[in-house]
Amino acid sequence: MDFLRWAIPKKLAFSPAGKYLVELPSDFPIRLYYYDFSLPHATIPNYHDFLEIVYILRGTGNFTIGGKEFSAAAGDIFAINSGVFHLLESEDASLDLVTIYFMPELIYQPGSSELNLEYLLLFLNYGSGFNPKVRASPQVSAEVLGRIEAIARELTGEEPFHRIAVKNLLCEILLALNRSSGISNVETEELHLRLRDINRLKPVFDYIREHFAEKMTLSLTAQAAGMSVTHLCRYFKKVTGKTLTEYVKRFRIDKAKELLIEDERSITWIAYEVGFESHSYFDKIFHEVTRLTPQEFRRKYMPRVTVDGT
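Predicted structure:
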């Protein structure tokens, strides 16, 4: 099935704390999105306040979820809870995936039948030993993709009772994933602990957002957070899955990508504008993150702009 109709917006939006800003309709809180890694997009760890099911359609990559790394390949399925930092990086430009975002209230309303809550055990069981990469057999994986395609058709056609059809298909997906995951004890307080962790790091995210273009030091960043350098480095890696240095580099590269597309000034100017102290080092880090040089990135996504590369 062609999911191009469901491609993400050209520019992703994030809060200063790294929250992915996607609005779900209040009357029917579910969205389906298609991601094509040949297109520019943010590459910093982020989180959101809804549940997510990820299906890898094509290609390979690496998924960092809650501080742990997982390989990702066609047919793999991931379940990501709200409040969990995650980052998917492609190994080549062929990585495509489709996601379902939804609020738990679509399935279970507090006070309603506890039977409906069982559909969400996959997410409520997000403990230290839980694997967000669902151990689905090829047959289950194919069945899940078929139901995702059916959801896309229902959302496209909006036939009578299409919302009931979409909800039923989602429940079938959740049932299949629950059975494949080997769920054990439910840890309902895990979400609150993750949100607490994120809130404790809010001063750090604010500081990075305000000072990323300057010469930043671990001591000044730790001072803004009210933590020691050692504690901040360990805590930041635990919550986001990346070191503080890695996060700042990726934040700067994402800002650079925006400028390369939107601003015609030289690449050297852009490098200094986002906080790099030399053109050569900027080129090196940009290539590590995007697998393209800044010049190649600009030519690919701004073909009408003439660039001298200086």
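Summary: The first helix runs from residue 114 to 117.
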